[in-house]
Structures are given as structure tokens and as C-alpha cells.
Specification:
By secondary structure, the chain is α+β, with helices and mostly antiparallel strands. It contains 4 helices and 12 strands, in the order E-H-E-E-E-H-E-H-E-E-E-E-H-E-E-E. The protein has a single domain, classed as Rossmann fold (3-Layer(aba) Sandwich), CATH 3.40.50. 21% of the residues lie in helices and 25% in strands. The strands form 4 sheets. A 5-stranded mixed β-sheet has the order 4-5-9-6-10. Strands 1-7-8 form a 3-stranded antiparallel β-sheet. A two-stranded parallel ribbon has the order 2-3.
Length: 209
């Protein structure tokens, strides 16, 4: 995990994906063609990459390739997920895969990822590596956010990594999210459900008005 110029890293941001997990990614999605925040200590060996040490910035510079994989600085995950979403929407990458903390309380999660992403919650807490090679489990749960994944790719990934898919019920209007300049914005309406809790703590749901 690395970040852009002028952005201070937290100590916990300096962690690297395990070779085992990278192998599962490539067996599922194909060769990683692009890493927008690559580090020499990483097990990722992409065809192309951005490296902050040479002045690159994955939050500024365009991404490319069929499969882009990013394990970004977790203290700044929202901007990186948004960037992956943008780069996928504008067609710079075919499939974008983000390994990030499982934060489920954000507007981004409920209104953007529910529309455009496949989200896979990893069972247990994955191990990452420090630059010195020491392995340690994460302090929080993790999820994999995928933009543009095919059914076959998702099936292969679920066969290799234990976890569960997030399947939103799409019970509210889609949020269009950030779109590239000139792109059409299509909003799809879904039935809205309203839920109330009774005094016995049971929950009653009915169509909203």
C-alpha cells in the first residue's frame, strides 16, 4: 500500500498483499496488468504500474489494462475506490479490483457500490506483510470490491478465497455516482421499503409512500 505525493502515510498503511492472495487473484481474473500504487516490496508483478517514488500518483494519473489490482492505503480507501470506479466507468480498465477494509456505513458503499460493484467479504482476517517480510493479520475485516468482473471470474474467485458475496436488495433509488464528462446518467427506480420496530422489537416492513 502506497499513496500519492504530499499525502502522509499512517504506519499501518505500509502493508503488502500476500503472494497466496495475489495468486488467487490472477488465477481468477487473469494476469494483473496494472497496479496504480505499486511498491517494490509487493508480491504483485504487474505489466505496468504507478510508483510514488518516481513521482507517479494513482489518484491523478490514468490507469490502464485489462485487470487493475490495488491494495491502497487503507486510511484513504474512499478516494481509491472512487478512483477505481471512475477509471472503470471511463473505460481505462476492463476490470478493477480493490482490496480494502470492510466499511459498510458509508454513502459510497450503499449508493455507488450497490449499483456498479460486486463486493466479496473475506472470511477471517487476511495476513499482510511488512516491508521487512514479517506477516501479520489485519486489525479489521476486509472486502474485495470488483468493477467489471464477469460471472466466470467471480465464480473462480469464490472457489479460491473463503467468504461471502454482498447481494444488495436494491430497495432504494440508485445513486448515479461520479460519471466521466459527457457520459449518460441513468437512474433506475426500485420499490422503497419502510421498516419500523414494534415495542416487542420485531421489525415490520411495508412499501414506502
Amino acid at each position: 500500500m502506497t499513496t500519492g505525493p504530499g499525502v502522509e502515510l499512517k504506519e499501518s498503511d505500509n502493508r503488502f498483499t500476500s503472494p497466496t492472495f495475489i495468486k488467487a487473484i490472477e488465477q481468477s481474473f487473469g494476469r494483473i496488468g496494472f497496479d496504480p500504487c505499486w511498491h517494490r516490496a509487493s508480491a504483485v508483478r504487474p505489466l505496468a504500474y504507478l510508483d510514488v517514488r518516481r513521482g507517479d500518483d494513482g489518484l491523478r494519473d490514468d490507469w490502464s489494462g485489462n485487470v487493475a489490482f490495488v491494495n491502497p492505503p487503507w486510511s484513504n480507501q474512499k478516494r481509491w475506490i472512487e478512483r477505481a470506479h471512475d477509471q472503470w466507468l471511463c473505460g481505462n480498465v476492463v476490470t478493477a479490483i480493490c482490496l480494502v477494509p470492510a466499511k459498510t456505513d458509508t454513502r459510497l458503499f450503499h449508493h455507488v457500490l450497490s449499483k456498479d460493484a460486486d463486493v466479496y467479504f473475506i472470511e477471517g482476517r487476511p495476513h499482510f506483510f511488512r516491508e521487512n517480510g514479517k506477516s501479520e493479520a489485519t486489525m479489521v475485516s476486509a472486502m474485495v470490491v470488483m468493477f467489471g468482473a464477469t460471472p466466470a471470474q467471480k465464480r473462480r474467485f469464490a472457489e479460491r478465497v473463503r467468504g461471502s458475496w454482498w447481494v444488495p436488495n436494491r430497495s432504494s433509488a440508485d445513486f448515479a455516482g461520479r460519471l466521466p464528462l459527457g457520459a449518460r446518467c441513468v437512474v433506475t427506480e426500485y420499490p422503497v421499503m419502510s421498516c419500523t420496530a414494534s415495542s416487542q422489537a420485531s421489525v415490520v416492513c411495508a412499501p414506502g409512500r
